[in-house]
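Researcher: I'd like a structural prediction for the single chain below. Treat it as a standalone chain; there are no partners to consider.
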Amino acid sequence: MVSVKAYYNETVETVRRDLNGEQDFLTNEEVKRRQEKFGFNELAEGKKKSGLQIFLEQYKDFLVLILIVSAVVSLFLGETESAAVILVVITMNAILGTVQTIKAENSLESLKQLAAPEAKVVRNGAVVRIPGREITVGDVVHLEAGDYIPADGRVLESASLKVDESALTGESIGVDKISAPLTGELPLGDRRNMVFSGSYVTYGRGVFLVTGIGMNTEVGKIAGLLKNTSEKKTPLQINLDRFGKKLSMIILLLCAVLFILQVLKGGAVADAFLFAVALAVAAIPEALSSIVTIVLAFGTRKMAKEGAIIRKLQSVEGLGSVSVICSDKTGTLTQNRMTIEHYYVDGRDIPADQIDPANPLQEQMLKFSILCNDSTNVEGQEIGDPTETAMVNLGDKKGISAQEVRDACPRSSEVPFDSDRKLMSTFHKMKDGYTMITKGAVDVMLKRVDYIQKGGKILSVTEEDVENICRVNEQYSESGLRVLGIGYRHFPVEKNISTEDEQGLVFLGLLAMMDPPRTESAAAVSDCKRAGICPVMITGDHKVTAAAIAKRIGILDDISQACEGVQIDGMSDEELNEFVENIRVYARVTPEHKIRIVRAWQERGNIVAMTGDGVNDAPALKQADVGVAMGITGTEVAKDAASMILTDDNFATIIKAVESGRNIYENIKKAIQFLLSGNFAAILVVIAASLMNLPVPFAPVHLLFINLLTDSLPAIALGLEPYHHDVMGKKPRPVKESILTKEFLIRVGVEGGVIGAVVLTAFLIGYRDGNEVLAGTMAFAVLCLSRLLHGYNCKAGKPVIFTGEFFDNRFMQGAFLSGFVLLTAVLAVPVLHGFFAVQTLKIGELLAVYGLSGVSMLVIQGLKRMVKF
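Model: Treating it as a single chain, here is the predicted structure.
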């Protein structure tokens, strides 16, 4: 059997013979045999993970494993409350992660929905309707305008057949289909004698022979790419993983050393274990993953109001780290709607916004382009070829009703568009007689033109006229515009026109059109560059068209920065990695090309976002660090593969998302700084007490109360700090930059040291009479209140006390008050004393707690004034 790739090079007879032998159609018996051999026309599903598997995977994190061990040890040592609280927290985290994962829909499900529900095929010599699933290789399928194409196939007959393949190729203009063989190896968009599953017929009729079904179609190849493309972790996920491993090693080392020290000092092994568990609990920020999830969830709510729906929480922060945005052109940077840009009439170039219906020739162009036209636009519902709807839409803008024009000049005969002839002609009865209007390719029309209309006169066309028309046509084409010529011919009597009548035409003018950029695209690209992000266009459209759009919106500076997909076919991955650095526009690309380009940027150490709306974009959307799909024009496949969906299809919304992502990361860093500096303070106190032969200052329940209740609220509040626009003036942070930078660790160390010093002072004050419970109560109270106040310290690298920033976060005010009330309840309500291992404090002791806590805040604020950190 001839390979699928070669079918467009073969004649109709060869393909028929290769697939069906001497048969003109399939019988029911032959269909059964082929369905057993090739399967049904549907896409294979990958094996799905069960809910239990997803739930158990949430426990892979090393910090979580340490907490589980701590809980088990606590249980054996009789610390039931501590064990219960730890297990409840990690279980809540696992449930949150499981729910978030299960929410993600399967991309292949939407790909399956692309199969046409029904198709008209020849079975046993008769045309019958069957479910698209039952189509098999060798079936002969009949098509007409409006039909979805159910499988891949070779065109056998084409009667002005035109197919919209934008979901697969990204090209917004319908493709004229032919039955003749083609030569050479061609990209998908140039295989004009093939049709593909997932596209649909916009004009004409046709018949094709099925050559590929299910996973062997072009859509099937995309499904295979999706199955084999792994989703990338965001920089935050990578950072938190590294952070967790480093913190785990430090904690294990400290616990081991202090456990050995306690045993060597003569302490009981059980007590030493309890001490080690207390240290582990003090060091591990138990609620960190929950806090990050909550902060990201709040971020998604804000972004949803701005037109961006987040399907995967981590992508919020991931988008803030993006250094390259690879964007599809059609429907993403452009409007996915053909629009008239220029007229060339009476020797003048006229921009579309300057076209004047009061000018007789310009009015004639408007009306003739509407008459020689099969499209309609009724109450915004466009039906027909995009190039023709562009002409009708221009008439509407200029106050010329298509229906009124057609009623006034009824069509009596026509010669439909033919892709070989490249012309369309219609015959109309008008006030002054009968007129044939012809539109089509400029080079073809000029061969049939004998006259030209200038002003109110019809003159013989001269060589100079032809040269001027060709020059303007070339200028338009070089600007990425699609150009059509309009001509006409008068007849004395009514007749049925034929191709033989398309001679002796009067040249009226040219109209040039394109799928224009979105109005906001240029500003969005400018913002990208200001934020240190490199915008790249990847499209299935032609190079000239893509480059013209890219120049308009600022992506492309020079044509040398544009290339076509065939140029990278022969490149190795290493060669492509070097090549992408200097290319900003990729034209005529396949889904495989898109994935390779995204990977090449990733190999260069970039965080890559990919935007798109078509089926052809889905694999690259999944491969990218952050996939961004269009919500209005986007296919379901693209939406399912993406991690973010733009409800307004506005490229500028991506820039807002970048700003949100950068702010969210900064806020998460503030929360981590807050948690680590507070936990470090507790560690310092525990170590100092051990070195001074003092009792363990904290019961595990003290540390859990602080970590899970009074710490969590300020940490969440810091994650919800007001956003600042200045983050867009910075370059994206390096991929390998850890959260635990030198500067960050210095801040954690200094702040933790200050808090630790006041907590140890409180412990020593309480222990002056040897009262361990009083000492523990004061240490616990100061640590708790100091950390509540420390939330304000972490708002900025500068002092915020006595400034407006101190009160600009209502969540922080709520967090402080809530934590203060909880602490007061523990200290003041006798029934809680036993559970939390505390005792009632006298007025002097209570004042000492408040005073020492306030001192810690003032000292840190003073240090920020002297040295910004």
